[in-house]
Amino acid sequence: MAEDILRDFLTVVLDKRGYSPRKVEIKNITSGGANYTSALFLINLQTSDKTLKLFAKVATMGKEMRIVANAEKLFRTEEFVYNKLIPLYNNLQKDLDEEHKFIFPEFYGFNNVYGKETVILENLVESGYKPYSRFKSMDWDHGRVCVEAIARFHALSFALRKSDPEGFQKIAEDMKYTFDEDALNQRVTDKFKEMVETSLSVLEEEQYHDKIREFLFDPNLMDKYNKPLSTPVLVHGDYRLSNMLFKEKGHDLSAVIIDYQTLHTGCPVADLFYIIFLGSDEDFRRLYYDKLINHYYTSLEESLKRLDVDPVEVYPRENFESDMKELLPYVLLTAVSSLPMVVVETESAPKWDSDEADFSSLILEPGSLYKQRFTGIINDLVRWEVI
Length: 387
Description:
47% helix, 5-stranded antiparallel β-sheet, CHK_kinase-like, two-stranded antiparallel ribbon, 9 strands, (African queen) hypothetical protein, 387 residues, globular, alpha+beta
């Protein structure tokens, strides 16, 4: 079914680009538990004078999971990013050296038909980019390029606001984070509490359970979460290692961010915390947490100056520090709701492609890696006197 949808849309895209006559080969691939919303495909296109290596995602979520995941918004957001935002951002950085640009994958087409949502992009793996194992804690080099990449991405928001204040304000309003309160029925609330208790069950010491519950069971939690604080930018929203590809260049490393379904108006620190706490373990953070935080802000300053934006005017260090202090407790929510799916074993990964899948599929049995990572996050938050 998904391959048929892709073939039909691919015909439209390739005809529009004049790639005819042609030979097309399509191969279904798996993400190994890193993707839940789509079927993934590699495309090999051969014409008389060129070869193209492409990548495609086709929506496969069942009815209930489309509601739970707010799928319509996810796909609308992705379409906006590839069709509207990327051209704006590329125009802002057109005069930068290639080594200083934020890299977007080349975009070929988006199908926005309900239930057939499809995006076709260049296959970056064919250009030498590789994923990083979601089961491994990041090392310094991968952490370094991750924060450099997201700093460049955030800098483009500031640059857009400077060059077109009204245009940025409209985008920021359109992309404002919203939470469907109607979806927050008693059943969903009960399942979220079950998710919290499942996470707490891995902690050997119970002395912090009540504090964690008190924070996570706050009825206003979701209203506060993912909102901009001192300075709004367009954030990625799901900035984890599984949404990154890396390429070695001699003795250096470069990174490309992928999957923009969760982009929204938020706080830069939210992306920074997301990649750090979902992509590293306690040992890494003891060695490199402060260094990574400083490297992000230094990279942001450098990126802003290249785009002719004054860092002190748009996001001074004191605002950055204030945002970190305010957002740090929300790492608890990330550790409970997102971390289980990031480190789930491949064979235990939830299936969202059937109508039987529902909110309960988000509640996963904690494995040994989750126990280690979750305990490490709690240890950090205790050490920093957050809980």
